[in-house]
Amino acid sequence: MQPVEDVLNSLVIDQLSLSLSPSSLQMRSSLLILCTLLAAVMHTVNASTPVYDGKDGHGHGAPSRDHNNGGSHHGQCTTLLERKEWRVLTDEGKHDYIRAVKCLQKLPAKRPVNPASVSRFDEFQGFHISMAERVHLAGQFLPWHRQFLKRYELALQNECHYKGAAPYWDWTQDADEFSSIKGSPIFDPVTGFGGDGVSGTYTIPANVNSVPQLVPTIPSKFKGCVGDGPFANLTLHMGPGKLNTTHCLTRGIDNTLRVRLNSAAVANTTKQRTFEDFRVQLEGQPVTDSPRIHDGGHFSVGGDMSNFYSSPGDPIFYLHHANLDRVWWNWQQMLPHRLYEITGRSTINPPYVNVTLDFPLIMAPLGPTVPIREVMDIHSVPSCYTYV
């Protein structure tokens, strides 16, 4: 397509040639009007067209644009929190993050959506359970989880004095390098989140699927209670699924899904041209015929993490979703128009509406409900973070 500037310039030249021929004053007046229109249009183009600097596509550069062009109206951030991959953190940084998570697990619930919530940590799990059927398998999936993770990050910082940013788990490094993802530093018992579940230490309730659920719980994913690490003695009060049961943190690491988490799987996701195709390819079942990087990550860890509803009971949930958010951010940076590209239906089942930038992301009582446009650019207020 010919650039707007070129089209307008050609029109000016054509009009100028007319004005230089033996012509009337009307021709010269037309030229003056056309030049005025040209200046106005060029002002509009410059004010509304995003300028993309590209950088390296890994969170080190931001699409640069006027922040009043239909995106965020809150302006630029004074600083950007740097979200880092777990293994890049120092041991001190890892311990401080785990300390903050355990702090959140000890703080009493404030305004729980689920009456079974005991702690602030529980509140996030309970809220996810209540929203799961609305925010998955739909256009709001990625922006909703982006904001959900931001509220969790803020809780760690404001209530538990965590000084860093939410870390992410880049499982491609494990899927590409190790014969089993059990070798990932994320499962280290000292500087990680503990390892696999121990067989025979947990029995899933027989009525786990008695409550109507959009996505049923898979009992075989619950191997047993996590046997080591900082969360070996963690008691959960919700899940599996929509049930409210008191139980240990469970896992059942499944290495057969490692192929869903490697670099090729991510490349197959980010090559998608439209947001809807990208979102479907990222999110996976039951829309796709087999797991993708979203559900592949959940199922690979297994146990509570494998559940459609109650997966935030495993602290690894937040690092997994931070990495999904990073993949989305990288995809957004590949082309200028993607920074604010959002499509799809609002929920998996009717009644639903088309998701737009003005669609509200429900966060209450964890935080204010905001329109999708406010979370699209992570380098703008209120997000103010980047991935390194």
UniProtKB/TrEMBL annotation:
<dbReference type="InterPro" id="IPR002227">
    <property type="entry name" value="Tyrosinase_Cu-bd"/>
</dbReference>
<protein>
    <recommendedName>
        <fullName>Tyrosinase copper-binding domain-containing protein</fullName>
    </recommendedName>
</protein>
<feature type="signal peptide">
    <location>
        <begin position="1"/>
        <end position="47"/>
    </location>
</feature>
<dbReference type="Pfam" id="PF00264">
    <property type="entry name" value="Tyrosinase"/>
</dbReference>
<dbReference type="InterPro" id="IPR008922">
    <property type="entry name" value="Di-copper_centre_dom_sf"/>
</dbReference>
<dbReference type="GO" id="GO:0016491">
    <property type="term" value="F:oxidoreductase activity"/>
</dbReference>
<feature type="domain" description="Tyrosinase copper-binding">
    <location>
        <begin position="136"/>
        <end position="153"/>
    </location>
</feature>
<feature type="compositionally biased region" description="Basic and acidic residues">
    <location>
        <begin position="53"/>
        <end position="68"/>
    </location>
</feature>
<feature type="region of interest" description="Disordered">
    <location>
        <begin position="52"/>
        <end position="76"/>
    </location>
</feature>
<dbReference type="GO" id="GO:0046872">
    <property type="term" value="F:metal ion binding"/>
</dbReference>
<feature type="domain" description="Tyrosinase copper-binding">
    <location>
        <begin position="314"/>
        <end position="325"/>
    </location>
</feature>
<keyword id="KW-0732">Signal</keyword>
<keyword id="KW-0479">Metal-binding</keyword>
<dbReference type="InterPro" id="IPR050316">
    <property type="entry name" value="Tyrosinase/Hemocyanin"/>
</dbReference>
<keyword id="KW-0186">Copper</keyword>
